[in-house]
Amino acid sequence: MTKRHEGNSIIVTGAAGAIGFATCEILAREGAELLLVDIDRDGLRDCARRLVDAGHHAIAHHADVSDEDATKGYVKAAMDAFGKIDGFFNNAGIEGKLAPTHEYPVDEFDRVLRVNLRGMFLGLRYVIPHMVAAGKGAVVNTASIGSERGLAGACAYNAAKHGAVGLTRTAASEVAQKGVRVNCVMPGVIETPLLVGMLEQMFDSVEAGMEKLGQTATLNRVGQPREVGDVVSFLLSEEASYVNGAKWEIDGGALATIRNDI
Ligand SMILES: NC(=O)c1ccc[n+]([C@@H]2O[C@H](COP(=O)([O-])OP(=O)(O)OC[C@H]3O[C@@H](n4cnc5c(N)ncnc54)[C@H](O)[C@@H]3O)[C@@H](O)[C@H]2O)c1
How far is the CA of 92 from the centre of ligand 1 (A)? Predict the structure, then answer.
C-alpha cells in the first residue's frame, strides 16, 4: 500500500517539542522526508537522530522562527535538501508568563507575539512562494482553543492564537487557486512541556491542574501529542484536498459544550 506522504518533503517547526515531534514521527512513518526546525539545539539533534535511527529521512535545522533571516535560512535548507516543499507544519510556540492583562509585562507581550505570531507569519511569508511556484502545497498552522475563547492570564498567548486563525484564513483565501491549502489546528489541553509551563503558573500542582483542565473536555481527559499529529498529517495530505481555511478543533469536545455534568 502506498504511504500517505510518500515522496513528500515537509518542514516542521517546533519539531523538538511534544506536538512537533509526535507529528514528525507520524509523517515520517507515512513516508515523508522532513526538515526539523527548532531553537532547542540539543533537543532538535536528539529528535532528528531518533528518526534517522528508525530508518527515516530527517534533517535537523537550528533556527529561531521569529527571526527573518533564520526563516529564510530554514526554507533555503529545505529547498537545497529536497528541491521542493510539499508540506509545512508551522507549529513553534511559547506559552509566555501568565498575568492579568492590566498587569501584563509589556516586554513579555512583545516576546510572545514575536514567536507565536510574527514567527508564524514569517514561515508563511517565505514557504508559500515555493508552493505557489510549484502549483501545490499544504500548510497547517498551530492555533489553539485559546483562539476561540478568552484565557485569563494569557493575553499575549491568546491574542497571538487569535491572530493565527486570521493568518490562516487570509493566506488560505489568497493561494487556494494557486494549488496551496492553508488550514490550522486548534489543540485543546494537550500533555506537553508547554502545558506544564502554564499549569505550574496556574495551579498548586501540575497533576491537579491536568485533572481539572481535562474536565473541560467532554472526553474528560487531556489529549496526547499524537492525537494532534494524526489530524495534522491528514490536513497535509491529499485526503484533505477540499479542506481550506479551516480550523480543526482537537480538544476532546471542550469547545463543543458547556459541561453541566461535573
Ligand atoms: N500543549 C497544549 O496544550 C497546546 C494547546 C494549544 C496549542 N498548543 C500549541 O502547540 C504548539 C506546540 O507546542 P507544544 O505543546 O508541543 O509545546 P513544546 O514546548 O513541547 O513545543 C514547542 C517547541 O517550539 C520550540 N520553539 C519555541 N520558540 C521557538 C523559536 N523562537 N524558534 C524555533 N522554535 C521555537 C521549542 O523549543 C519547543 O521545542 C505551540 O504553538 C503551542 O502554542 C499547545
Answer: 5
